[in-house]
């Protein structure tokens, strides 16, 4: 048992070392097996030099792992390399809604557009709305509507806006036709997670329930002011 624990510990340390080296742009040692976590990190940080060096040395990467990392980092150049050099384009459904959601979280609209243009489906990508909200990028949120990304029914993007304190986004979400979710959800979320004054949040939720997006900008401004987190 002790020996097994030592092997696991050595494996974890080796993986952390690989992640660190690739994050610094350094290629792995010749013949060294690269962990999926290290591959993903290199792609996420756009260390193409290290990836190309290892590729020329004969290392066989897992294209989907690299694509996932590249999407999570909003790295279009890496995605193009994986699609062309590693022939990911030959695999049906290789670009997934999960990759699109990861790209939305970066707020990188170029990467989001690239994924869709290269065959990434959006069916099942409802989580991209909350992810884009978490990025704080209005352009990313607007792009979701433009691309026809399915809108979530549970109000998750609004919860993300409240949790991240991005008060400029609820009016935009409402204008784009994103459902606010069950009445009382925002209030309970703030009550549980924030522990702050709720009157302003209640006013915001009432406006969401009455579908008056034109009034939401003023309501959210007051909400931010009441919670003392900026206007």
Text of the CATH class of the largest domain:
Mainly Alpha
Please give the alpha-carbon distance between the first and last residues: 58 Å
CATH topology call of the largest domain: Serine Threonine Protein Phosphatase 5, Tetratricopeptide repeat
Helix % is: 55-70%
The fraction of residues in strands falls at under 5%
Mean pLDDT: 80
Topology:
Blueprint: H1 2-23, H2 36-44, H3 48-56, H4 63-73, H5 76-85, H6 97-106, H7 109-117, H8 127-135, H9 138-147, H10 156-164, H11 169-175, H12 185-193, H13 199-210, H14 213-226
Helix pairs in contact: 1-2, 2-4, 4-5, 4-6, 6-7, 6-8, 7-9, 8-9, 8-10, 10-12, 11-14, 13-14
Question: Would you kindly provide a written description of the structure presented here, covering whatever features stand out?
Answer:
The protein has 231 residues and is an all-alpha fold. It has two domains: 35-150, Alpha Horseshoe (Serine Threonine Protein Phosphatase 5, Tetratricopeptide repeat), CATH 1.25.40; 155-231, no CATH class. It is built from 14 helices and no strands. The longest helix is centred in the first third of the chain and has 22 residues, at 2-23. The protein is elongated. InterPro entries: Ankyrin_rpt-contain_sf, SecEffector_AnkRepeat.
């Amino acid at each position: 048992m002790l020996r097994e624990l030592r092997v696991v510990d050595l494996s974890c340390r080796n993986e952390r070392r690989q992640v660190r080296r690739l994050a610094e742009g350094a290629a792995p040692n010749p013949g060294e097996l690269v962990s999926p976590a290290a591959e993903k990190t290199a792609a996420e940080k756009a260390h193409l030099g290290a990836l190309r060096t290892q590729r020329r040395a004969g290392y066989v990467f897992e294209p989907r792992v690299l694509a996932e990392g590249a999407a999570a980092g909003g790295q279009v150049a890496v995605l193009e390399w994986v699609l062309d050099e590693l022939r990911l384009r030959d695999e049906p459904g290789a670009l997934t809604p999960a990759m699109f959601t990861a790209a939305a979280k970066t707020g990188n609209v170029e990467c989001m557009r690239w994924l869709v243009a290269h065959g990434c489906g959006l069916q099942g990508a409802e989580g991209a709305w909350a992810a884009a909200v978490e990025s704080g990028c209005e352009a990313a949120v607007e792009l979701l509507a433009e691309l026809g990304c399915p809108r979530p029914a549970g109000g998750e993007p609004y919860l993300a806006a409240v949790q991240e304190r991005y008060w400029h986004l609820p009016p935009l979400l409402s204008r784009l036709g994103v459902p606010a979710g069950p009445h009382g959800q925002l209030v309970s979320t703030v009550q549980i997670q924030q522990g702050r004054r709720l009157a302003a949040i209640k006013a915001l939720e009432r406006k969401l329930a009455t579908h008056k997006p034109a009034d939401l900008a003023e309501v959210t401004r007051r909400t931010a002011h009441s919670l003392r987190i900026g206007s």
